[in-house]
Amino acid sequence: MKLQPQSSADAVAQRLAQTATRCLIDEARLSPKPGLVDSRGNGAHSDLSLSLMERSAHSLTPTFFALAQQCWRRPADVALRQLIGRLGREGEQSMMAATNGVNTHRGAIWALGLMVSSCAMLSGHATASAISEQAARLAQLPDPAAPTVFSKGLRASHRYRVPGAREEAAQGFPHVMKRGLPALLHSRAQGASEQHAMLDALMSIMTTLSDTCVLSRAGMVGLEAMQQGAGAVLKAGGCASHAGRQQLAELDQTMLGLNASPGGAADLLAATLFIDRVALPAS
Ligand SMILES: CC(C)(COP(=O)(O)OP(=O)(O)OC[C@H]1O[C@@H](n2cnc3c(N)ncnc32)[C@H](O[C@H]2O[C@H](COP(=O)(O)OP(=O)(O)OP(=O)(O)O)[C@@H](O)[C@H]2O)[C@@H]1O)[C@@H](O)C(=O)NCCC(=O)NCCS
Ligand SMILES: Nc1ncnc2[nH]cnc12
Asked: What catalytic activity does the UniProt entry give for this protein (predicted)?
C-alpha cells in the first residue's frame, strides 16, 4: 500500500507501518521453521499458506499506520489504550477480510501493534528498552471497551497455568528482549548468515515460551517437545552449524508429528525483527 506522508508524524508512521509489514513477511518466508508456514510449505497448517500470510501482512499496513499516527507523542493513559484496542480490533477484522476468515496474525497484531504504538509515542526515536517498557505500560492499562471473550489463548493459559500473549506484553516482551534480540545479535556477531541468525532467534524464543498455539493443539507434551527441541538446536551449535541444522530438521518432524505450530513464537520473532530495525542503539 502506498501512503502519502503529510507531516513528519506521517513520515515516521509510514516508516513504522512499512517496517512492521516487512517484518511479518520476512518471518513468514524464513525457512526452515518447525511446524510453521514458510517458503517450503504450510507446516502443520491445513488452512494457511505463504501467500495467505503475505496477503494478511499487507492488509495490516493501514492498521499499523493508523496506530502510529494516533499515538504520535501521546502519553500512556486509558483513553489511548482504548483507542489502540479499537484500532487493533479493526486490524483483526481487516486480516479476517483479507484471509476469508482465517486467523493468520492475531498475536502479531497485538505484539507489533503495541510496539508500533510505543515507538510513535516516543517520536520514532527510542532504544529497544524504552520501546518495550512503553509497550508494557500500554498492555497493563485496562481497555474498558474490550469484549469479554474466553479465547483459545486464555483457555490454554488457565488450563496449564502458564502466561500467554497478554502477560508477555505486560512484562515488556521478555522473549523479545532477553531471548530473540540477544540471540539475533550474538549469531550475527559470530558470523552467521541473516537466515541462520533469524532462525537462532526463533529457537531461543522457543526454548522458554509458553506458546498457547502449541498448547491448544498438542498440550504440554507438544510444548515440552518444542522447548527441548529448540534448546537442542542451540546446544548443537545453532543453525549455522551442520549439527544444529540436523537438530532443527528433527524438531520440524516432531512438531509436524504432533500437529503443533509455534505461532506465538513466530509473532515474537517478527517483533524481534521490528525492534532490531527501528530501535536506536543503547548509549
Ligand atoms: C491479547 C490478544 C493477543 C488475545 O490474546 P489471547 O491469549 O486471549 O487469545 P488468542 O486469540 O488465542 O490470541 C493469542 C495469540 O497470541 C499468539 N501467542 C500465543 N502464545 C503466545 C505467547 N506466549 N506470547 C505471545 N504471543 C503468543 C498467538 O498468535 C499466533 O497464532 C495464531 C494462529 O494460531 P492457530 O492456533 O494456528 O490458529 P487458530 O485459527 O486460532 O487455530 P487452529 O484452528 O488453526 O488450531 C496467529 O494469530 C498468530 O499470530 C495466539 O493465537 C489480543 O488479540 C487482544 O486482546 N486484542 C484486542 C485488541 C487490542 O487491545 N489490541 C491492542 C494492540 S493493537
Ligand atoms: N509462519 C507462521 N506460520 C503459522 N502461524 C503463524 N503465525 C505467525 N506466523 C506464522
From this structure: 3'-dephospho-CoA + ATP = 2'-(5''-triphospho-alpha-D-ribosyl)-3'-dephospho-CoA + adenine
